[in-house]
Amino acid sequence: MTAIQLRSEAPGARILGFGEYRPRRRVTNDELVQVMDTSDEWIQSRVGIAERRWAGEDETLVEMATAAGGKALAASGLAPDEIDLVVLASASLREPIPGIGPQVAHRLGIPRPGAFDLNAGCAGFCYSLGLVSDAIRAGSARNAIVIGVERLTDVTDMADRSTAVIFADGAGAAVVGAADEPGIGPVAWGSDGDQHSAIEIAAGSSTMTMAGQTVYRWATTKLTDTLHEAMSRAGVTAADIDVFAPHQANLRIVESMTKRLGFGADTVVARDIVQSGNTSAASIPLALSALLESGEARSGDLALILGYGAGLTFAGQVLRLP
Ligand SMILES: CC(C)(COP(=O)(O)OP(=O)(O)OC[C@H]1O[C@@H](n2cnc3c(N)ncnc32)[C@H](O)[C@@H]1OP(=O)(O)O)[C@@H](O)C(=O)NCCC(=O)NCCS
Q1: Which atom of ligand 1 is nearest to the CA of 32?
Q2: What is the pLDDT of residue 89?
Q3: Active site positions, annotated
Q4: From atom 14 of ligand 1, which residue's Cα is the shortest distance away?
Q5: 280-316 burial code (b ≥16 CB/10 A, e <16)
Q6: Could you tell me if 83 and 73 are in contact, meaning their C-beta atoms sit under 8 angstroms apart?
Q7: Weakly modelled stretches of the chain, pLDDT under 50
Q8: pLDDT of residue 96
Q9: Atom 24 of ligand 1 has which residue's CA nearest to it?
Q10: To test ligand 1's pocket by mutation, which of 162, 222, 248 has the most ligand atoms within 8 angstroms of CB?
């Protein structure tokens, strides 16, 4: 009997570069006050958002994903033909067939990669990063791109002030390659499917509803263990973490997690939600790109990330920043 052969494993995988796309149009809280019964004070105190970006008609999922992916590719220094896996994470795809991963890969000039879409809600980027990191380690791909892209304004009911002030649009991407020294820790992931209706687009509807308080309680009580698990799987402790970049769902949730983990002034905490709103699967790469660009985070820093959202799903890992 001929044995099936496996490719040799890489010792680890690491992020080689980030890229991002922020839609042109900034929407301030004062602009929202003109069209719905809300206030800057309510939004800032309940969710911590000062402004967000809303995509224009021409800023499609494909356009935004291609722009972010192209920047990540340029930052990585790799040529398109060195990529052989493209994972596109999104929760706001309006047309299920075909998926847009292959089209985005084609637009990036990547010849015939494995390419698909992944919907794990706001945890999509971390789920995808876990998959591509393991694919690279196992020899199934040399290099990969993960792109989180959302047009949540397409699935938001603008008459529902409790979601309309929160959700926004954008794209963030990371190129991942093999590394002798692992730069992506094992993923800690899971789901609570009994709460599937907490964030949903119900059958027959085209817009999302959210049980805000249920999600808030879940995020602030159930996910601390996952953050600890991600660190323990990577063999690090909170004292080793330079940058904490959880999903930018709500500033109060970011602050609560920061406190529960005991992070002090030495740890840089991502608060991109203030300028970007909640961009679901795009929020973590957008936040990390912004921190690297501003110099608040530096190459070589150890970051802890955690995505969580519709499903309900959650996933987190420790990363070495490129
Ligand atoms: C959505 C969220 C901000 C709502 O805050 P909350 O304190 O739970 O508010 P409630 O839903 O209890 O509503 C309180 C009041 O504020 C009102 N309200 C809701 N949205 C409002 C808005 N944008 N402006 C002004 N008032 C608003 C409600 O109508 C309600 O009024 P009432 O008391 O007269 O009925 C909060 O629950 C939350 O952040 N949840 C987590 C959501 C999240 O992170 N989701 C992303 C996961 S990916």
Answers
A1: 23
A2: 98
A3: 122, 247, 278
A4: 162
A5: bbbbbbbbbbbbbeeeebeeebbbbbbbbbbbbbbbb
A6: yes
A7: none
A8: 86
A9: 38
A10: 162
Q: Is-above-0.90 flag for pTM? A: yes
From the CA of 247, give the closest atom in ligand 1: 48
Distance from C-alpha of 90 to C-alpha of 60, rounded to nearest angstrom: 12
Q: Write the residue with the smallest CA distance to atom 7 of ligand 1.
A: 46
Atom of ligand 1 nearest to the CA of 309: 48
Q: Which two tokens stand for residue 17?
A: 């570069």
What burial class does residue 98 get, using C-beta atoms within 10 Å of its C-beta: 0-12 exposed, 13-18 middle, 19+ buried? exposed
- Output the pLDDT for position 191: 98
The answer to whether 51 and 26 are in contact (CB under 8 A) is: yes
**Lining residues, ligand 1, CB within 6 Å:** 38, 42-43, 46-47, 122, 161-162, 165, 210, 212-213, 215-216, 249-250, 253, 278, 309
Task: For residue 287, give the H/E element and its range.
Answer: helix 283-294
Domains within the chain, CATH numbers bracketed? 12-179 (3.40.47.10), 188-320 (3.40.47.10)
Model pLDDT, residue 50: 98
DSSP output for 207-228: S-EE-HHHHHHHHHHHSHHHHH
Of 30, 32, 46, best ligand 1 pocket probe by most atoms within 8 Å of the beta carbon: 46
Q: Which atom of ligand 1 is nearest to the CA of 165?
A: 23
Nearest to 168 by CA among 261, 267, 274: 274
Question: For position 105, what pLDDT does the model report?
Answer: 98
Give the residue, by CA position, lying nearest to ligand 1 atom 2: 212
Determine the pLDDT at residue 8: 73
Secondary structure of 37-96 in the HEC alphabet? CCCHHHHHHHCCCCEEEECCCCCCHHHHHHHHHHHHHHHHCCCHHHCCEEEEECCCCCCC
Strands 268-269 and 243-246: parallel
